[in-house]
Fold each of these.
Amino acid sequence: MAKNHVHTAFSLTEDNGNVRKFVAGEEVPRELVDHWYVKLHTGEAPTVDPGAEAAADELLAELEAKAKALDEREKALQDSQGILGSIREEQNAKALALSEREKAADQREADLNARAEVLDGREVAIANREKAAEAAGKDANQQGRRQGK
């Protein structure tokens, strides 16, 4: 059997300066087989077991089935991501609406507190007027009693 099967990739510079690159699994041309550097990187081609091809076909079929399953999972994940994106947008819109409601409630509370302060001030003023009126009435009664004596 010819020993021109490349088992390790290499580059060979020929006498004319041309650089030839060889990759593993490639066959070297017969005119270069006897070159000392080529011999370091070549050997007999591996023998192929007839059962290996059937096993390779089985493995290939298994890999194709797994690739199909992965594609289906990827599509399911993309669908789930789309659904999650929609839910996220919906939740963000709800959070924004809730934030606006909270701001409005805070403003209403501030307005009510301001009104309460105004009303408290009015109540104090009314209470002061009532006390003053009551005091004035007592003074008038006492002066009337003094004058009537």
Note: The beta strands are 5-6, 10-13, 19-22, 42-43.
Amino acid sequence: MSYAVPARLAHLRVDGAQPVVYVAPLPDGPPVVLQGSAARIWLAATDPDTGTTAAAVAAGVAAAVGTKPEQITADVDAFLTELVNAGLLEVRP
């Protein structure tokens, strides 16, 4: 299972000391601001260069924040589920 940006989701990434991602379902969904770890998870889940599976997302985020993937895997998995349920990510087989 992997993750992808839904076809009708607008998104804008703002780089800085902490990443920020603005996402909004089109045409009339409310905008959502993802900051810090939330933004890192969304960005990792939508980056085909690093892999978009839950394990790859956890590994990418762990590397970015200087921790071990096994220490954050459960939290990353839970947040990925929240993003899918909110329509901000989609699951692909």
Note: The mean pLDDT is 93.
